C-alpha cells in the first residue's frame, strides 16, 4: 500500500516538480540500469542458447558449463563486495557533508548525475551476473562463449567504476567544487525560471493607478501548511485568460505558509470563477526546493560559510563568499524583470510577489556577517566582494551595496582593530565609495574606523589612506 501511495504522489506532481524529485532520489537511475541488465542478460541467453554463437568463434575463448558456474559465482561475490564498499563510501561522504558543511548538501550529492550512474552500474552489474549464473547448467559438454565474455567485461566495468567513484567523491568534497556546484545549480534554476517567464514579459509600463482597487479583490487561502514550492505560470496565465481575471501572488516562491494564509488575490472582470482551479497550478509541500526558489540557493551557500566559521576554516568561508557574490551578480540581473506577466493578447494577468536586490544581498551576506562576530578578515573579504559587485553591476543597485557596507562598518562598535586590518578595510571601503559616488559618506566612516585603533596607529592609518587617495 505504501509503495503505491509513493508512486501516486509522483503522478500528482507537476512535470517540473516530478523531474526535480526523481533527480533527487537514489532509486530512479539504478532502476533503469537494472532494466538494462535484465535486457542484456536476455540477449546474452539468446546468443548462447538461441543462435549458439560459439559455433562462429574460436574454441579457446569458450567455457564449459561447470567451469562457467565457478567463474560466475566468484564474479557475483566480487561485484557484491564492490557494491558494499561503494555504499559504505557513500555513507561516509554523506555523513561528512552533513556534519562539516550543511545537511542541505545531501540532496546535491545524491542528485549528482555521476553519483546516480555509479550506483546504477553496480546494481545493474550485480543483477546481470546473477541472472547469468541462474541459467548456466553443470553439463560438461555445454560450451558457452557470450556469457563468460560479457560477464567478465561487466565485472571489469564495475571495478573501474569503483575507482572512478572514489575519485569522484574526493573531488566533489573539495571546498571549491562544493561551492561552485551549488552556485551552478542555483544559476540553472534561475535560467530555467527566466526562460519560463520571458514570453510573458512585455516592454510595457503599468501604472499603479491603472490597477484595480484592493477592496475589490477576492482572496484565495491555502488549505494546508507548508512551503510554496512551485507555480505553473503558463497554466495560471491561460486559466486567468479564460476566466478573464487578474491574479496577484501574496506570497513568494519558497515562503512558508500556514493553513488559512492568503496565497492569491484575484479581481474578476466578468463571470464568477472557481478558485479551486488555481490550486491545481501551485504546489505546497513540507520542504523547500530549488525548482523556482532563488533565495534557497543563497541560504545554502551562506550556511556552508557559517559552518566553516564554526570549524575555523577561513578558506571555505572565503571561497563561499566568492560564489555568493557571483550568484548575487546573476540574481541582480534577473530582479530587473518586471513583476507583471501578460497573456498573448497583452492583457495583464499575473502580478508576482518579487523582492529587490537589497533583499537578496542581505540574505546572502548578512548571516555571514553576523556569525563572523566582527572577524576583520571575513569583513574585509565581504567588502572586497561588494566593491567588486559595484564595478560590474548597474547603478540602480549601487545604493544598496553602499548601504550594506556602511552598516557593516558601523557594526564595529566597541571593537578594537589591528592597524593593518583597519587599513585593508578602509582600502576596500574607499574603492567602493568611488564606484558608488559616496566619497563624503566615506569620510565619516574613516573617522569612525580610526577610533577603533590606537591614537598612534590611527595617524599612520590615516596617512596611508590619504596616500591611497592620491592618483597614481
Question: Brief overview, please?
Answer:
The chain is 64% helix and 8% strand. The chain has helices at residues 2-12, 15-23, 28-50, 65-101, 105-110, 113-135, 146-172, 175-197, 233-243, 276-279, 294-310, 314-334, 357-371, 376-392, 398-410, 419-436, 439-450, 455-469; strands at residues 63-64, 143-144, 218-221, 226-231, 245-249, 256-257, 262-268, 282-285, 340-342, 348-351.
Spatially, the strands of the biggest sheet line up as 3-7-5-10-9
Query: Mean pLDDT, as a whole number?
Result: 82
Rg, Cα atoms, Å: 30 Å
Class based on secondary structure composition and strand pairing: alpha+beta
SSE order, one letter for each helix or strand = HHHEHHHEHHEEHEEEHEHHEEHHHHHH
- Overall 3D shape: flat
Q: End-to-end distance, in Å?
A: 76 Å
The major sheet is characterized as: 5 strands, mixed
Q: Keywords for this structure?
A:
single chain, 472 residues, alpha+beta, five-stranded mixed beta sheet, three-stranded antiparallel beta sheet, 8% strand, flat
Amino acid at each position: 500500500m505504501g509503495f503505491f501511495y509513493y508512486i501516486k504522489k509522483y503522478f500528482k506532481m507537476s512535470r517540473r516538480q516530478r523531474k526535480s524529485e526523481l533527480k533527487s532520489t537514489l532509486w530512479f537511475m539504478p532502476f533503469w540500469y537494472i532494466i538494462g541488465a535484465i535486457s542484456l542478460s536476455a540477449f546474452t541467453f539468446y546468443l548462447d542458447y538461441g543462435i549458439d554463437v560459439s559455433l562462429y568463434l574460436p574454441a579457446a575463448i569458450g567455457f564449459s558449463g561447470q567451469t562457467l558456474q565457478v567463474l560466475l559465482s566468484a564474479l557475483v561475490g566480487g561485484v557484491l563486495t564492490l557494491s558494499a564498499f561503494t555504499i559504505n563510501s557513500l555513507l561516509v561522504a554523506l555523513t561528512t557533508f552533513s556534519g562539516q558543511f550543511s545537511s542541505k548538501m545531501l540532496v546535491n550529492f545524491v542528485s549528482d548525475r555521476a553519483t546516480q550512474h555509479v550506483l546504477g552500474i553496480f546494481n545493474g552489474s550485480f543483477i546481470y551476473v546473477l541472472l547469468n549464473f541462474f541459467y548456466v547448467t553443470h553439463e560438461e559438454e555445454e560450451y558457452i562463449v557470450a556469457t563468460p565474455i560479457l560477464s567478465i567485461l561487466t565485472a571489469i566495468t564495475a571495478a573501474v567504476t569503483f575507482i572512478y567513484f572514489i575519485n569522484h567523491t574526493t573531488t566533489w568534497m573539495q571546498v571549491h567544487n562544493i561551492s561552485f556546484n551549488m552556485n551552478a545549480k542555483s544559476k540553472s534554476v534561475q535560467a530555467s525560471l527566466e526562460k519560463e517567464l520571458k514570453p510573458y514579459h512585455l516592454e510595457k509600463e503599468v501604472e499603479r493607478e491603472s490597477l484595480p482597487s484592493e477592496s475589490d479583490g477576492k482572496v484565495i487561502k491555502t488549505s494546508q501548511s507548508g512551503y510554496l514550492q512551485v507555480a505553473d505560470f503558463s497554466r495560471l496565465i491561460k486559466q486567468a485568460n479564460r476566466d478573464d481575471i487578474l491574479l496577484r501572488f501574496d506570497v513568494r516562491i519558497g515562503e512558508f505558509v500556514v493553513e488559512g494564509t492568503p496565497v492569491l488575490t484575484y479581481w474578476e472582470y466578468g463571470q464568477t470563477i472557481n478558485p479551486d482551479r488555481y490550486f491545481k497550478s501551485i504546489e505546497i509541500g513540507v520542504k523547500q526546493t530549488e525548482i523556482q526558489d532563488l533565495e534557497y540557493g543563497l541560504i545554502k551557500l551562506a550556511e556552508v560559510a557559517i559552518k566553516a566559521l564554526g570549524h575555523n576554516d577561513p578558506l571555505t568561508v572565503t571561497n563561499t563568499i566568492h560564489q555568493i557574490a557571483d550568484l548575487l551578480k546573476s540574481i541582480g540581473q534577473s530582479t530587473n524583470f518586471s513583476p507583471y506577466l501578460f497573456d498573448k493578447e497583452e492583457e495583464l494577468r499575473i502580478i508576482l510577489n518579487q523582492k529587490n536586490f537589497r533583499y537578496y544581498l542581505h540574505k546572502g551576506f548578512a548571516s555571514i556577517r553576523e556569525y563572523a562576530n566582527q572577524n576583520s578578515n571575513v569583513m574585509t573579504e565581504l567588502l572586497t566582494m561588494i566593491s567588486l559587485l559595484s564595478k560590474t553591476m548597474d547603478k540602480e543597485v549601487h545604493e544598496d551595496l553602499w548601504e550594506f557596507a556602511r552598516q557593516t562598518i558601523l557594526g564595529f562598535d566597541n571593537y578594537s582593530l589591528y592597524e593593518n586590518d583597519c587599513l585593508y578595510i578602509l582600502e576596500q571601503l574607499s574603492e567602493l565609495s568611488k564606484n558608488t559616488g559616496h566619497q563624503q559618506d566615506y569620510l565619516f566612516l574613516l573617522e569612525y574606523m580610526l577610533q577603533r585603533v590606537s591614537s598612534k596607529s590611527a595617524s599612520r592609518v590615516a596617512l596611508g589612506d590619504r596616500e591611497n587617495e592620491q592618483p597614481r
